[in-house]
Amino acid sequence: MAQTVVLKVGMSCEGCVGAVKRVLNKMEGVESYDVDIKEQKVTVIGNVQPEAVLQTVSKTGKKTAFWEAEPETKEAPAEATATPAEATATA
């Protein structure tokens, strides 16, 4: 079953991008991938295990970590401040 793995990878040049692409091309189970140097983001789709993708990309020597989902803590205060205002507006 295909799944999507998103990593944050420290890439500073096209050589870095090439190194990441080379290891992903050799990895079994990878159906497709996208390497975004500007966002420092690598998205891999395929029949792969997230930990295996992390380990494979780490072999390039680039700083690699799982991409953090948008932190809910940033959204929560905005919702918390919006909720009383909405309550006041409707009251």
UniProtKB/TrEMBL annotation:
Domain HMA intervals: 2-65
Annotated segments matching region Disordered: 67-91
Pfam families named in the record: HMA
Record Gene3D superfamilies: 3.30.70.100
Highest taxon, organism lineage: Eukaryota
Keywords attached to this entry: Metal-binding
Coiled-coil ranges per UniProt: none
InterPro entries according to UniProt: HMA_dom, HMA_dom_sf
Bias (Low complexity): 78-91
One MF term in the entry's GO annotations: metal ion binding
Protein name (record): HMA domain-containing protein
Originating organism: Acorus gramineus (Dwarf sweet flag)
